[in-house]
Design goal:
InterPro entries: ADP_ATP_car_bac_type (IPR004667). The structure is a single chain. The chain has two domains: about 230 residues, Up-down Bundle (Growth Hormone, Chain: A); about 220 residues, Growth Hormone, Chain: A, CATH 1.20.1250. A hairpin with a 2-residue loop joins β3 and β4. About 35% of the residues are buried. With about 600 residues, the protein is mostly helical. It contains 19 helices and four strands. α5 crosses α9. The strands form two sheets. A two-stranded antiparallel ribbon has the order 1-2. Strands 3-4 form a two-stranded antiparallel ribbon.
Length: about 600
């Protein structure tokens, strides 16, 4: 049967097409209007309204039929028109669908409350364990390794068990309510009774027997309730933020919504950091307005824990409201197989791939470097601000400045990526950490020569070291959040699917814990070897220099591999686009009489005009 086209909606494919079928289509009014204004290639129409496809090289159409007819990909055009009509009827506010806003606004408020609490808890936990009697910053490496890590592992095992027997809603409340209850109980019950429940006499006896180099491990027993608060505050960051919030957000949002709104959550996080830092500063200064003999830190702690409890209840309410009034998107029931890699399998995979090995070096180097500087800085911070209220007030200012710096860096990060590329962006974080780290350790090790200079600025070498260390932490963390994390995630993009999935699993299993605990293990070794953190400072400075140098070398190596893979991927995309562009023609036997067939391919191909 010859290929025919009815100008009022019947579309026929070329003569003798393989597997082609005649399709019927009723165009929508919007589609007719859109296609009637397009410049279409001319198509010859016979007087009876029918057309024979002799060749796709010479096609003509009358102006009358152009206004009445349409030519399109049948199903795709109809679906697009239908979607356009339905989308236009969807209610919107500021260009965003109302159903989307009902999800995104509560999620944004939840994220704000969670991170507001996390900033208060993070600042408070440091004040408790560093300024407590019989303790110092030397407790932090031991606390992270021997208390925080085991409890995190135990919690995740318990969470896995509960997830098998509880619904998602019940699991959310079962996890977050104990956190809220504990922080409220700590502020109003445990801290006021700390002098009664802490075994200080036993700790003093053991310290006299073992020596001062064991002050860090013994301090964990001496102030066990403060250490428990430290761990619960750390778990709030990893469990409530990473597991509960992002798990819930991924459950109720679509991929398109996530691409559009997830970056805004990052900016909102830094807004929460700014406001919570001001809150910590305000309540830490309450001591100035209290009478003599009043424990100002206890009063401040009660006020801040009351805010934490209130924010926690607000999180629960928002979670209930979303589940009650927001419809969840439909998901495919087909589950993708996830790579289950043990520690040894992850190590083998890391060693076998140079690309993944360099990426792993970046992750481990950041974790070790930031820990080496941060603990040393907090030891100087205690020396400068021994009072809990003064220490907490300074940490409030520190959190506010970190939020402002990170917010600014996030706005500038897009310019850095566009102007200078991935390589420069990946090297900024180690460069910032190296420069500020050298300045910080120089003030500590060579404070004497710098004393006249800093005295002209109205500071002591100790205070100057505290400020430089604060700047080092602020700039390092803002660079990490705005540049290092995006660079790390972008590095996975050009990898093939197998390497991408296995590489990320390997880095999550090995490198993240190794980076976090590696610095703590180095500091523990130095403290037990040289007797104190202050005595080991010169060696920590040398170790930091070596680690950042290896970090920069890995970033340079990874830059070349990343650019090569991205070029190959772009070339493949261009080749795919080129191969998809085919000139549709009919077979030689169907060519018009007298038309040359030397330029015609051997086979006929269907077309969409």
């Amino acid at each position: 049967m010859e290929g025919l086209i009815q100008t009022r909606g019947i579309l026929s494919l070329p003569a003798k097409p393989t597997g082609a079928r005649t399709l019927l289509l009723q165009p929508s009014h919007a589609l007719k209007q859109r296609l009637s204004t397009r410049s279409l290639p001319p198509l010859s129409i016979s007087s009876n309204g029918h057309s024979k496809f002799q060749s796709f090289h010479k096609i003509s159409i009358s102006n009358k039929e152009r206004n009445r007819g349409f030519i399109c990909k049948a199903e795709a055009a109809a679906a697009t028109a239908g979607e356009g009509d339905s989308t236009a009827l969807t209610p919107k506010v500021f260009g965003v669908e109302v159903t989307t806003l009902k999800k995104i606004v509560p999620l944004g408020l939840m994220f704000f409350c969670i991170l507001f609490n996390y900033t208060i808890l993070r600042d408070t936990k440091d004040v408790l364990v560093v300024t407590a009697k019989g303790s110092s910053a030397e407790i932090i490496p031991f606390l992270k390794t021997w208390v925080n890590l085991p409890m995190a592992i135990g919690f995740m095992l318990l969470y896995t068990k509960l997830s098998n027997v509880l619904s998602k809603k019940a699991l959310f409340y079962t996890v977050i309510v104990p956190f809220i209850a504990y922080f409220g109980a700590f502020g109003f019950i445990m801290y006021p009774l700390s002098n009664l429940i802490h075994p200080e006499a036993l700790a003093d006896k053991l310290l006299a027997t073992l020596g001062p180099r064991f002050m860090g491990p013994l301090a964990i027993m001496r102030i066990w309730s403060f250490c428990l608060f430290y761990v619960m505050a750390e778990l709030w960051g990893s469990v409530v933020v990473s597991v509960l919030f992002w798990g819930f957000a991924n459950q109720i949002t679509t991929v398109d919504e996530a691409k559009k709104f997830y970056p805004l959550f990052g900016l909102g996080a830094n807004v929460a950091l700014i406001f919570s830092g001001r809150t910590v500063k305000y309540f830490s200064n309450m001591r100035k307005n209290l009478g003599p003999g009043v424990d100002g830190w206890a009063v401040s702690l009660k006020a801040m824990m009351s805010i934490v409890v209130g924010m926690g209840l607000a999180i629960c309410f928002l979670y209930w409201w979303v589940n009650r009034y927001v419809p969840l998107p439909t998901r495919s029931k087909k589950k993708k197989a996830k790579p289950q890699m043990g520690t040894m399998e992850s190590l083998k995979f890391l060693v076998s791939s140079p690309y993944i090995r360099d990426l792993a070096t970046l992750v481990v180097a950041y974790g070790i470097s930031i820990n080496l500087v941060e603990v040393t800085w907090k030891s100087k911070l205690k020396a400068q601000f021994p009072s809990p209220n003064e220490y907490s007030a300074f940490m409030g200012d520190f959190s506010t400045c970190t939020g402002i710096a990170t917010f600014t860096m996030m706005l500038l990060s897009q310019y850095v990526f566009d102007k200078y590329g991935w390589g420069v962006a990946a090297k900024i974080t180690p460069t910032v950490l190296l420069v500020t780290g050298v300045a910080f350790f120089s003030l500590i090790l060579f404070g004497g020569p710098f004393a006249p200079l800093v005295a002209k600025l109205g500071m002591t070498p100790l205070l100057a070291a505290v400020y430089v260390g604060a700047l080092q932490n602020i700039f390092s963390k803002s660079a990490k959040y705005s540049l290092f994390d995006p660079c790390k995630e972008m590095a996975y993009i050009p990898l093939d699917e197998d390497t991408k999935v296995k590489g990320k699993a390997a880095i999550d299993v090995v490198c993240n814990p190794l980076g976090k605990s590696g610095g703590a293990l180095i500091q523990q070794f130095m403290i037990l070897t040289f007797g104190s953190l202050a005595s080991s400072t010169p060696y920590l400075g040398v170790i930091l220099l070596g680690i950042v140098t290896a970090w920069l070398a890995a970033a340079k190596s990874l830059e070349g591999q990343f650019n090569t893979l991205m070029s190959e991927e772009e070339l493949e995309k261009e080749m795919e686009r080129a191969s998809s562009l085919k000139i549709p023609v009919v077979s030689q036997e169907d060519a018009a009489p007298g038309e040359s067939t030397s330029q015609l391919p051997e086979k006929s191909a269907p077309t969409s005009i």
